[in-house]
Amino acid sequence: MRLVLDTNVLIAAVVADGLCRDLVRRRLEPHTLITSQVLLDELREKLVEKFAVKAKDIPFLRAYEARVEFVEPAHLDAKLCRDPDDLAVLGTAIAGKADCIITGDDDLLVLVEYQGISILTPRQWLEAQEKPSSGK
Asked: How far is CA 39 from CA 18, 19, 81, 134, in A?
């Protein structure tokens, strides 16, 4: 499965022990992670701005950068979502041919899916992974 992890999921994985950290550390290995430079820059910016943590001081970020597939986000109509900042997430998912966006952002979650790309919370994604396959 090809996945885009929204910045809020990655921040939660870095700063708090819990569902997002478990998801990132233990559940994503068989999947392809997709990001863009704009999302990575946003992650670094938020870590400094909100938590006074520099990206170079977080080993997880170096490992994440080494593992992800980078794409240039597709350009989308600004009217597509309530928060224009979320266009980068959607554009990254489209350019990367993602199957799913994992996010905690209500402005994205309200879309449910976009161009065949599911938009799920971390818990929803984990629950979907734990369901038995329907044999398709």
From this structure: 22, 21, 17, 34
Side-chain-side CA neighbours of 59 within 13 Å: the count stands at: 1
Question: What's the pTM?
Answer: 0.91
The answer to the question of residue 123 being in a domain is: yes
Span 60-86, mean pLDDT?
A: 89
Give me the pLDDT at residue 53, please: 76
Q: Which amino acid is at 70?
A: F
Q: Give the chain's mean pLDDT.
A: 90
CATH number of the domain where residue 61 is located: 3.40.50.1010
**66 vs 123: CA distance, rounded Å:** 25
Number of domain units in the chain: 1
Site of tokens 């979650």: 109
* 64-100: b (≥16 Cβ within 10 Å) or e: beeebeebebbebeeeebeeeebbbbbbbbbbbebbb
Residue range of the domain that includes 43: 2-129
- Asked whether residue 135 is domain-assigned, the answer is no
